[in-house]
């Protein structure tokens, strides 16, 4: 039967919203019913389509998370366990989770632990604060020595819980941080994210682990801020930070104290003094000066307001590593009971809480640093000497290390000249130079 063409006012009610009900007859009822069921079918179809789209989306999400996840699975756990296994002949080996393992200090500490037969698992987020390819190269070096480095962030509580569940780490060497004093002006949030939030996430995971590991972590000489008493001793005031970086490190010292006090975590904080050496950090002065001198580019040398030279207690990486290992070896066990839950972790007694300066005890001015580099590089620097901008720098640092010497047997042995010699040798070889000329 040929369908009657719909009259115009059936399609478009003359008064919007006002359908002329009185004109609905039997045939229209059928048509209406037919269109209702069509609408119902359409609605059903749309619901099914939406549901299948959503489940497809969640499938895509889950699988992409699974595919992109850099951790998890039986094979991964096996690798973690193998890397964490100590191999020391004296059976005194420790198992250390090193955060920031692809960083400068982290990679050196991980290697040193591995070389003496301790178990080491690394964790690093490979962020792009400086060239991540250098971090990848450090990771390759570590894996060639049997150290497995997990790619992940200390803010990832699930990852931390998993790592501490898979292995009963005796120690955590927490070196992951947002470093750099002056960069805090540009990116303050990154300091809060890594040095405050990341630290708390790590401490939460450690407090809940059973057994609880002892924690050794990197504070900084920058906590002394505007302190003028020299040399800097651990008991000096540290409530005048000159940069947000310093403030987050100082906050870290207070935060770790809280976890020590409430949960019995054994804590050792190390105030590093301007650490330098091979595989170093490209953002630091000695490294960027070397790069610029070799490339014939100018360097900027800061000086104090009264034209005084700035000075640092530059400390060679091998000395710092010895201080780190001695800290791990003398760290007492945590005293908390482990286990999660709100307030469910009780300490059985007071736990160790220590803070040490790890410096070199002989400050050197920045112009002297430059002249030592010039000698090792056999090239002259193009220097721009400018007044220190007010961006967080302090005029000088100088460590008193008697406490570390007494408790850790810490005794630095490399002076700046010898240390920079080793650094320059590494730099030329790593970046493919033959004495000032780059091999291409
Ligand atoms: O000891 C520490 O706690 C800190 O040491 C270094 O911080 P900093 O001493 O400022 O090291 P550099 O950035 O290498 O600067 C060394 C000296 O060179 C100066 N400098 C730096 C850069 C530049 O272009 N020109 C220049 O004269 C600085 O003012 C400073 O006096 C590290 O970068 C921090 O992460 C660390 O926490």
UniProtKB/TrEMBL annotation:
InterPro entries attached to this UniProt entry: Epimerase_deHydtase, NAD(P)-bd_dom_sf
Pfam family, one: Epimerase
The NAD-dependent epimerase/dehydratase domain, residue ranges: 96-333
Cell location: Golgi apparatus, Golgi stack membrane
This enzyme's EC code(s): 5.1.3.6
Annotated TM spans: 32-56
Keyword tags: Isomerase, Membrane, NAD, Transmembrane, Transmembrane helix
Main localization (coarse): Golgi
GO molecular function: UDP-glucuronate 4-epimerase activity
Top EC class for this record: isomerase
Membrane topology: Multi-pass membrane protein
Domain of life: Eukaryota
Cellular compartments per GO CC: Golgi cisterna membrane
Catalytic activity: UDP-alpha-D-glucuronate = UDP-alpha-D-galacturonate
UniProt similarity note: Belongs to the NAD(P)-dependent epimerase/dehydratase family.
Protein's recorded name: UDP-glucuronate 4-epimerase
